[in-house]
Structure formats: structure tokens, C-alpha cells
Amino acid sequence: MRYVRLLASLCALALVAAGCGGDDSSAESAPTGSDVEQVFFILDWVPKGQTAPFFVALDKGFWADRGLAVQMTRGYGSGDTSDRIGIGEGDFGFADAGVVMNKVSQGLPLVEIAAIASTVPVAAYIDPAAGVMNPQDMVGLKGAVDAGDGNDNTFKAWAPSVGIAYDDIDWQYTDGANITSVASGQADFVMDWITNIPEWWLADPPIEPDIQWIGYDIGVYGSGLITRPEVLESKPDVVQAFVEGAMAGFEYVIEGGPEAREEAIDILFKYNPEIAEQPNAREFHSGNLDLFLTLMLTDEVRDGGLGYYEPEKLDLTLDFMNEFLIEGPDVTADDAFANLVDEGQVKIDNFDEALESLEMVLGRPNPLMPYIQP
Predict the structure, then answer these.
(1) What band does 29 get if pLDDT is binned at 50, 70 and 90?
(2) Is 161 helix (H, G, I), strand (E, B) or coil?
(3) What is the mean pLDDT of the chain?
(4) What are the CA-CA distances from residue 21 to residues 27, 50, 123, 268, 276 (Å)?
(5) Would you state the pLDDT for residue 6?
(6) What DSSP state is assigned to residue 337?
(7) pTM score, two decimals?
(8) In the chain, pLDDT over 70 holds for what percent of residues?
(9) How far is 71 from 69, CA to CA, in rounded Å?
(10) 316 φ, ψ to 5°?
């Protein structure tokens, strides 16, 4: 896909925040003026620490300054978000790349426009009593997962690469698979994002699961921003402005260090007061954000910056997905990717300092660091 550039400078907009709550919650800016573009942005799941930088972009006016009035709402999994964007129920989405590529192969009109998670966050949280020493030891275990979501599809892609089959697992399909499945004894392991480790640490009593970081083993791109090709073709300036505003939110949180991360959680709670009332809310969402930023700060991001799809890694991503995941015709970069962020456009100037500030998470050594910095 061709690169597109911002065609015109759009008027600035004063942002008015609207709070959100419950399953139908949303956060939005209230626009004024005829030149403002209103867009609808669907997250992959409920708002969390890891999506706080999007709320920072909203609150700080990073989108408004680019002429966009953004309404943001929760998602119900990457598959649902992809479907809704593909049929025009939203303009932009945040979704797992594997799910998106499979949808594209099946004919849904979607295009990836910026990398967010430069590593797939999907992991298996395993009950230590299961005695899993390697992937082959998972054969015959009970695994809990949301059927058809990004975690489920990632396991499907990963399993043959390590010599096991997806159907070797006794799957327990559930809505919102999480720690409860293992803690209650209903499953031997659960598929979840590795950024949710704080949920286990903060349990009473704390749980120390064995972890198989499946996404790191795969070594491909994770979740990113998506839109429809028709939106990209008809409104390239709007798409570029949306991507730039989102990148500015992540850049602010990463470069600002611990203070900016705490501010990001305050902003997350401002727009989502219901999650602030949950037990251990600040600890969970702060840890969740720290871990997500850690998996973003890979060598590719050090060199190419945030949002940029490094060509070699993109080729690896597509090769892996076409071989192990995609059910229809192979997908090419031209089919489903528009690299809207130039190499080095959103570089983290204090990269080493930013990564160093993430070495501890909730008073514990960051468990992702041995992967990121072996």
C-alpha cells in the first residue's frame, strides 16, 4: 500500500471529555466547527492500563489538535472489533494482527495502519501443579480460552510450530477466560495476555503461575491500528491524523517515564470511573501498562520508532500467519498493510532510560525483561 501524507492542516479543537461506564461505555470529544472530522474508535477489549495511552491522546488533545473528534468505546475481542470495522460500524479499531489477517483472507475489507504491540502479548498461564516443562507437556491438559479470539487463534498458529496440535488440548471455551479458570480448578492453564500478570500477583493469596510466552516464541507483530481500505483511500488525511494522534499518546507516556505513566492511569480512571472502583485498580492497571510498554520497546522500535512496520519483520509475520493461521488465500503486505509511519518518525529519544524505568513492576523484577533483554 502506498504511503499517505497529511494533505492539509486541520483546525484545532477544544476537547470536552465525556465520562464512560458499563459495557456500553465510551469516551469522546465534543466537536465544534464545520472542518472537524468525527470518527469512531473501537478498542479490542475493556479499557485497561495498556490502552491508557489512547485516552491520553484524547485527554491531551493530540487528536483534537489534528482536527479529529474521536469517540472511543470498548471492544469484545479482536474478532468482534475487526468485524465491526469491516462492515462500517466504526472507523478505526485496535485488534490482534493475526485475527485481522485471517479476516482479510476471508474477504473482510481491513487494513493495518500502524504497529502498536511489536510483540504478540499472548501467553499460557499454567498451574504449577501441571508440571509443564516444555510445550509438549501441555498435551492432554485442560485449557481455557475465548473461542475464536486472538488468544485462541495465536495458540492455533503456535501449536504446529512446536510439534503439537491444537486439538491435543482439552479446550474449555468460556466468555472472558481469565485467572478464575485456573484458580477454581476448571482448567490447567488459561490463554491470556502476558500483560495481565498483575491480576495473579494481586490475588489473595497471590498466585505464581508457570508462563509460556507464546507470542514471544512466534516473534511477529501483535496488535495494531486498523481501518477499512475505503476510509484510507477516501480520507487519507483523516487516517494519517488519527495515527499521528495515537502515536503521540504512546510517545508521551513512554518518554515521560514513571510520572507520565501515573498520569496516564489517572486519565484512564477519569474516562472510566467504574474501573477505578475495582479492588487493587491502580496497582493492576499500572502494572498492566508497564508490562505492555515493555513488550513494545523491542530492537525494531529502538531503530525504527513507534508505529513503523519493519519490512523484514513484516515479511516474517505474514509468512508465519499464511503458513499456520490463515484459513483462506494467502495475504500479502499489499492486501492488508499501509505503513503510515515512516522509519524513525516516532523515535524514542531516551529509549534506554525508558526501558530501564520499567525494570521493576509493582515492586517485582519485570518478568518480561529476560525476554526483551536476554
Answers:
(1) low
(2) helix
(3) 89
(4) 9, 18, 29, 12, 11
(5) 29
(6) B
(7) 0.87
(8) 91
(9) 7
(10) -60, -40
Burial class (CB in 10 A: 0-12, 13-18, 19+), 322: middle
The Cα-based distances of 86 to 51, 91, 237, 240 in angstroms read: 21, 9, 20, 19
Give per-residue pLDDT as tens, 73-93: 999 988 999 999 999 999 999
Q: Is 93 helix (H, G, I), strand (E, B) or coil?
A: strand
Three-state secondary structure of 5-57: CCCCCCCCCCCCEECCCCCCCEEEECCCCCCCEEEEEECCCCCCHHHHHHHHH
Q: What is the 3-state secondary structure (H, E, C) of 169-214?
A: CEEEECCCCCHHHHHCCCCCEEEEEHHHHHHHHCCCCCCCCEEECH
Helix H segments across the chain?
Answer: 52-59, 78-86, 97-105, 150-158, 179-183, 197-201, 214-218, 229-234, 236-255, 257-271, 273-276, 281-296, 299-304, 311-324, 333-336, 351-356, 369-372
Residue 92 DSSP one-character state: E
Sequence letter at residue 161: S
Please tell me the predicted confidence (pLDDT) of residue 148: 77
Output the pLDDT for position 34: 58
> Nearest Cα to 367, choosing from 248, 153, 212?
212
